[in-house]
Amino acid sequence: MARVLIRGGRVIDPAVERDERADVLIEDGRIAAVDASIDARDAEMVDASGCWVTPGFIDLHAHLREPGQEYKEDIASGGSAGAAGGFTSICCMANTDPVNDDPSVTEYILDRARNESPVKILPVAAATKGLKGEIMTEMAALVEAGAVAFSDDGRTIMDSDMQRRVLEYSKMVGRPISVHAEDLSLVRDGVVNEGPVSTKLGLPGNPAAAETINVSRDVHLAEITGGHLHVGHVSTGGAVALIREARARGIHVTGEVTPHHLTLTDAETMGYDTNTKMAPPLRGPADVEACIVGLADGTLDAIATDHAPHAVHEKEVEFTEAPPGVLGLETALPVVLQLVRDGRLTPMQLIAALTFRPAKVFQLETGRLTRGAPADVAIFDPERRWTYDTTKGYSKSRNSPWNGKEMIGRVVTTLVDGEVVFHVDRGVLHP
Amino acid sequence: MMGRGLLGIEDLDRDDIELILDTAQHMKEVGEREVKKVPTLRGRTIINLFFESSTRTRTSFEIAGKRLSADVVNFSPSSSSLSKSESILDTAKTLDAMDPDAVVVRHQVAGVPKRIADVLDAPVINAGDGAHEHPTQALLDLMTVVENKGRVDGLTVTIVGDIAHSRVARSNVYAFTKMGAEVRVAGPPTMMPVEVESLGVKAFTSLREALDGADVVMALRIQRERLSGSMLPSVREYNATFGIDRAKMRFAKDDAIVMHPGPVNRGVELSHDLTDDRPSVILDQVRNGVAMRMAVLYLLAGRKRSRNEEAS
Asked: Residue B195 is nearest to which of A195, A202, A316, comparing CB atoms?
């Protein structure tokens, strides 16, 4: 029986509201015990002193680019980036080439993941064929193949009837519809948040209303259909308020927010750095504040990275032409730990948003350290300082606004099913 | 403070602007000679890198460089990276490897001169980027106002038209407010950038109120494609509400001047007669444009070599 003992760390497990110094015993890839002091001399020892020991992080929203855009990222590099960032499950979006709108693509991704990825890869399938918003995908077959949710992310289903039907039909398979909520007819050519910054920069603005209009529509559609609406990368106070109100009315709505929308404002774009171009865009301080409050009060369930690798040559173009999106997997933890240092989130709230709560949104059995759960574990030193250098990261791409910045908090060890898949000194250890 | 290049008026302080204006006055004198050429920049190379076509501005920079005896090379990539031919930064790095003393950049997208400046050794002069800035235009406008009014401090300057899409408006807002003028902007609400007052101006949707007591009236060019659609219903309505003619000029001060960065859509932004004659100073602006660009090139392209010499 393979046994691993994680010793001496501060164990934070939101599933049972545990926050105390404890040892964690793993047997055959599952959590066997968590206790103040466990004696298991035959077990492989993992020293966690000075570290927090938490469930492995779960990213509900990442772009791993395989199949089709392996020059940006692939399942091996994206999975490795995740392992280095403490993520043990990565839900990968369907906007690959070909689009993951067919069970054969879902199976291909899972097959590649088994052979190439140190962490679990959970495919999110397209909600409509080719992400075109015209014909819905074979949701039953896709779930059978392993899809955990549906999303046309990157695109928005602008036809309200189509969106309604997708939410309705997905009830049959009991899986959420994750939406990229932007009214594209209002976004038009907008590339930065509409406000004083867009006025100064002279770049076309994307108003916050583009998001709130679409979230409002989708909330109403979730209400009349009873489907599970999951709002991806919430960026505005208006959307937070809509989700809060919808949840209060019992509508099945969940939401996620990215590390960048929690910590960066549109002021970052003042130098025209295309690595600050996201969709939705970085917003003003009031929206950032509302997102933090929404995460703290539970309106938003999860921190999701929206890890979106793009090649250097794709980003080294005019701001209006650059593809939106930034890397997230390797920097998420230190970036959001700032919210704990600033007293905006408790450690429990933060870890819940990275583990237990996203697991609930996508109905995963992971995200907890309770007995019998898969032994997916992140061990990190919340004080350790390091400088993020994209050229030394695991991602194939470099598009990060945090490149060259000092980070506080570093993952030391990541375990998946009880196996060490990353150690800060040894790097990613392939399965 | 003025940096190595000139990317925008926003980066300048009042002393920088006064230095440039003084220098331009000297340069203007060169243009009034029979032989309009001085050896100041002899042996220096200036590249006009114009991604967006602009005969007027490019010609103005070219004449300015030639009057200073610089070798001026015009490079107009037929297309931007939209066509996936070569990225703007690759183009810029390629040109930089040819060791120019200054690169003058015009691009239809805001921020491109800044990104190019970030990777170039040579100083970059912004000749207009999207709806961001057009600093030499604002400087020549300041020069023209000083010539006509004797000062900028305390004047009221009204900028009329499509403020949202105008780099000329932004640069002039910075330029005139830094030099002590009160700046007003007027135009249809669809052409007003959001929170425009954050730039330090007063915004009007009534032309009459905006012109009340104005010393300088600056009409902006409206792009033809925006004259009818989601921004404006028609040319006729725009001309009726924001087109400047002699009747509307009566709301401004008696001695107010009329400016326009050109080219004028006659009968749209300005009435025909107002375009050609006083109080219009449009041709003064063009004339001063050459002197101003000579001044900017002198101040920036003259620098690089001396820095290299210091290093060696």
From this structure: A195
- Give CATH superfamily name and number for B135-281: Aspartate/ornithine carbamoyltransferase (3.40.50.1370)
Domains B9-133+287-311 and B135-281 are alike in CATH topology: yes
What does the domain layout of chain B look like in residue ranges?
A: 9-133+287-311, 135-281
Distance CA A93, CA A417 (A): 23
User: Is pLDDT above 70 for B308?
Assistant: no
Between chains, do A199 and B81 touch, taking CB under 8 Å as contact? no
Tally Cβ neighbours within 10 Å of residue B198.
13
The residue from A183, A306, A381, A417 that is catalytic is: A306
Q: Could you name the CATH architecture of B9-133+287-311?
A: 3-Layer(aba) Sandwich (3.40)
Find chain A residues with C-beta within 8 A of B110's C-beta.
201-203, 272, 319
Nearest CA in chain B to A192: B110
In a mutational test of the A interface, the residue from B112, B174, B194 whose CB has the highest number of chain A CBs within 10 Å is B194
DSSP 8-class letter at A288: H
Closest CA–CA distance from residue B217 to any residue of chain A (Å): 22
Partner residues linked to B103 by β-bridges = B47, B124
- Give the SS3 label for residue A135: coil
- Kindly state the average pLDDT of the residues B59-81: 88
> B107 and A205 in contact by Cβ < 8 A?
no
Tell me which H or E stretch contains B64.
helix B55-67
C-beta atoms of A321 and B89 within 8 A = no
From the list B125, B71, B101, the residue with the least C-alpha distance to B302 is B101
- Asked if A320 has any chain B CB less than 8 Å from its own CB, the reply is yes
Mutate to test the interface with A, among B52, B79, B81 (most CBs of A within 10 A): B81
Q: pLDDT (tens digit, 9 = 90+) per residue, A5-15?
A: 999 999 999 99
Task: Determine contact: A190 vs chain B, CB below 8 A.
Answer: no
Query: Cβ A318–B196 below 8 Å, yes or no?
Result: no
Q: Which domains does chain A have, with CATH numbers?
A: 3-53+374-387+408-428 (2.30.40.10), 56-361 (3.20.20.140)
Helix orientation angle between B88-96 and B112-119, rounded to the nearest 10 degrees:
40
> For residue B85, is pLDDT > 90?
no
Residues 6+ apart with CB under 8 A from A338: A263, A408
Interface contact B81-A321, CB threshold 8 A: yes
Nearest chain B residue (CA) to A195: B194
Angstrom distance (rounded) from CA A256 to CA A241: 13
Average pLDDT value for residue range B83-89? 69
Which of A199, A202, A316 has its CB closest to that of B87? A316
Cα–Cα dist B305/A327, whole Å? 41
Inter-chain CB proximity A199 and B198 less than 8 Å: yes
Q: A178-209, pLDDT tens digit by residue?
A: 999 999 999 999 999 999 999 999 999 999 99
Contact B195 A199 (CB under 8 A): yes
List residues bridging with B203 in a β-sheet: B185
Within an 8 Å CB–CB cutoff, is residue B2 touching chain A? no
Q: Are strands A427-428 and A419-423 parallel, antiparallel or unpaired?
A: antiparallel
Catalytic annotation present for A28: no
Say what the pLDDT of residue A154 is. Answer: 87
Tell me: the pLDDT tens digits for A271-311?
A: 999 999 999 999 999 999 999 999 999 999 999 999 999 99
Assign B38 to helix, strand or coil.
coil
Residue B290 has pLDDT above 80, yes or no: yes
**Stretches in chain A below the pLDDT threshold 70:** 1, 431
Q: Would you state the structure tokens that stand for residue B224, as one six-digit string?
A: 């033809």
